[in-house]
Design brief:
Elements lengths: L12 H9 L3 H20 L5 H20 L9 H20 L4 H8 L7 H21 L3 H10 L4 H8 L4 H23 L3
Helix pairs in contact: 1-2, 1-3, 2-3, 2-4, 3-4, 4-6, 6-9, 7-9, 8-9
Amino acid sequence: MSTRSYPKEEISDYQLLEGLAAHSDEALEQLYTVYYPMTLNLVLTNSGFDADAKDIFQEAVLVLYEKSRAEGFELRCKLRTYLYSVCRHLWLRRLKQRGKESELTAELESSVEVGADLEEQGLRDEQFHHMRTAMGQLGEPCRTILEDFYLNRMSMLEIVEKFGYTNADNAKNQKYKCLIRLKKLFFANYSKI
């Protein structure tokens, strides 16, 4: 049993797998530190609780452990993408067992079609997460204006009435400024990866 230690900022996917297969506490700690938050976010935003996220992540780590010890296993995508995919699959199965199939569940299920590139899906999932974070940081009235226009499909005239703008051009100008702020927040968050 190896207790090889890796510097946390320099550990690669390969080293994590190697450490996990060798029962390294540091590798396991690194897995939880780096990858558990994405599982927590997945579960909490899809009808789950903290305890559910912990269970799902532990199951995913066990799957990864078994794979890392299997003869000939080769990781063909980023570890983040692989773990996210396993966690999503486990969580969907748990939701189905509970009879909690919802629109979100259907959305999650259809987000990766058979044969789709997991790497690309992982990148998209990260982008959605960063967009959600940016929307949360945006503040009012920008958040509501953008949600009303893009998500609730309100017309500019309805937005003029709701927010008390003098005309549609003023509302469009405000929406444009809000989009610029959202874009800056998104890229500021995204560049932190």
